[in-house]
Every structure is written in C-alpha cells, then in structure tokens.
Amino acid sequence: MQAIDTPVPMTDIHDIKSLEILTADWSVLVYILGAVIILAGIGAAVYFWKKYRNRKQISVAVPVLPHEAALRLLDALADVENMDGKAFYFSLSNILRAYIQARYAINALEMTTEELLPKIDLLGITREMHQELKALLRSTDPVKFAGVSAVVSKMQQDLAFVRNFVMLFEEKQGEG
Known about the structure:
There is one protein chain. Helices cover 64% and strands 0% of the residues. It is mainly alpha-helical. It has two domains: 35 residues; 110 residues, no CATH class. α2 packs antiparallel against α3.
C-alpha cells in the first residue's frame, strides 16, 4: 500500500501548452469586400439604367391654347337636343369661364356671375359682344340654380355665341 503523502502519477493529464499567437485570416475579408463592391456596382448600374430609361419615356406635353381647348369642349356640347338644360348651361358656363380665365387672366372660375360682370369691361371686346356676353352670363344662372327650363333654340344660340366669342381670339391671332 502506498502512503497517503505520496503523489500518484497522473498519465491522462498533460501540462499547459504555451499560448499561440493568432493571426487574422485576411483572405476571407478580401472575398467579402470584393462581393460588396460587385453588388454595389450592380446596384448602381441598375439605378442609372432605370433613371436613364425613365428619362427617355418622359413625354413633353404640348400646351393647348385656350381657344383650342374651348373649341374642343364646345364640340362635345353640339348635341343640344339630347341634353338636359341645366347640365348644358353648367358645362357651357364652365367652358366660357375657363376660357376667360386662361385667355384674359381673370379668375372667372372662382367668381360668381355678379363678381365676373364688372371684369368683362376689361376684356377689350366690341360693345355688342360685351353686351351679349353679360346677357348670356345673367341668363345661365336661373337655369343652373333656379330650375328654369331651357329652350333648345336658345341653347343653340348660346352655344353659337360662345363659339363665336372664342373664335374671336383666333381671328385676332391670325391678323396679328
């Protein structure tokens, strides 16, 4: 038997090794950096390709002259016989007011008839045209708001007057 003070040799435990100095493996970092650069290049190429492609697709809208727009809209009202008088006069009044606003820079769409009537004096139109325009504007309100029925012949006359009023600008442009 062995004595208690005697050390027992251990064969399965080994002594501590000295520390190893670890170095970073830069090859992995180079691969990661290369992948990021390639992905950034692909992303930039896609971005500029889409931007260039969208720039090519932008179409330039040719501005429509006020009298051209008004005449197109008046052509849509040509079927007076099959229209409700109230709807007709709302449309006719809107076309006329939009034309006055675009042509003469008067905020006619936002004005009541009573606010618009004094502004008509500034349009520089003939006295006869001036009086007829005021009469037309006054006659549309009862049909639009008070339920007065409209007569087809009067609707045709008013449509022809507004068309002549708009054509007046085109004739002036042709002379000047």
